[in-house]
Fold this sequence. Notes:
By secondary structure, the chain is an alpha/beta fold. About 25% of the residues lie in helices and about 30% in strands. Helix 6 (about 180-185) links the parallel strand 8 and strand 9 (about 185-200). The chain is globular and about 60 Å long. The N and C termini lie far apart (about 55 Å). The relative contact order is 0.10.
Amino acid sequence: MTEEELRTVRRAFARQIVAVAGVSENARLEAAFSEVRRERFLGADQWIIVDAGKWVAPLPENDPVYAYQDVLFALSASRGVNNGEPSLHARMLNALSPEPGQLAIHVGAGTGYYTAVLAELVGPRGHIIAIEIDPILGSMARENLRDRTNVDVVIADGGNWPQKDAHRIYVNFAVTAPPAPWIVRLSPIGRLVMPLGVPNEPNRPGGPRSSQYGGAFLIERRENEFAASYICPAYFIDAEGDPASIDEDAVARLELAFRSGRAECVKSLVWGDAADADQCWHSSPEWSLSYTAVNAGRANKG
């Protein structure tokens, strides 16, 4: 297809994605999806669409027009990493609501497709720091994003970032608990979008773990309190690390929370302190997701 024809395909794709995500009123998000060339981020190997967690037959050729569907593309089969479902990311990015000029941290950037969408949303006066733990994918992201002067790619453990206060933090893998930097480095009136997930057993020894139960949550800092809300179901690959380090008690508590079916009732995050377990969707001595709203009056002072 000609470049003009592909621009038309991207505009149609973007319109469809925000509609499917239920966020068609977000014109800035639609424009960002229409500007970013998804095919640039899918790699040079033969493209493979992932359907319901299974690897399906490779596409006959790497034709850019195939990229503009609401489907997953494999990036690293051995790690279970894919390019991500655009309509899910549209819902999550709508909740994140990046603004022009802001600093945003993209944790789990893969090859950089959604980093590029974030870069469109914060604009040339904004800045994106993209974190990817896998050196191969991180190197691909650097190459793919080389012409975006408002993006830096760091190959590192995303649990250690951000290293300074950030307006927006966007996480693209599942955790059973948020690492401290995601909370304490969130700027006042900042927003964090993260997937919580209960990991399945790997499908082979040493293989990747995906979420058995999962959901995306929005955390909003209001001075020293944190509002929280459930966005939607979200099943991501789980955070990488030594399986022996998994806190099975924490996994069991989170599974119980998801099985309760009341995630949509969450209103706040209690951080660094115990909360009344009877008033919580998820409760632990270190952090909890509570049904009790933050004190809006105190949060809005000043």
